Amino acid sequence: MTVTNPAVVFEPGSGMRVREVAVRAPRAGEVAVEIRAAGVCHSDLHILNGDWPEDRPLVLGHEAAGVVTAVGAGVDLERGDHVVLSWFAPCGRCDRCAAGRAWLCTGTRAVENVLPDGGTAFEEDGEPVWPFLGLGAFTKNVVVPRTAAIKVPQELPFDVGALLGCAVTTGVGAAVNTAGVRPGDTAVVVGCGGVGLAIIMGLRLAGAGAIIAVDLSAERRAAAAHFGATATLDGATVDVPAWCQEHLGGADYAFEAVGRPALIEQLPAMVRSGGAAVVVGMPPIGAKVGIDAFDLADQGKSLLGCNYGSSVGAVDIPRLARLFLDGRLPLGDLVGTTRPLAEAEIAFEELRAGIGLRGILVP
Question: Over the stretch 82-99, which tens digit does the pLDDT of each residue have?
Answer without folding.
Answer: 999 999 899 999 999 999
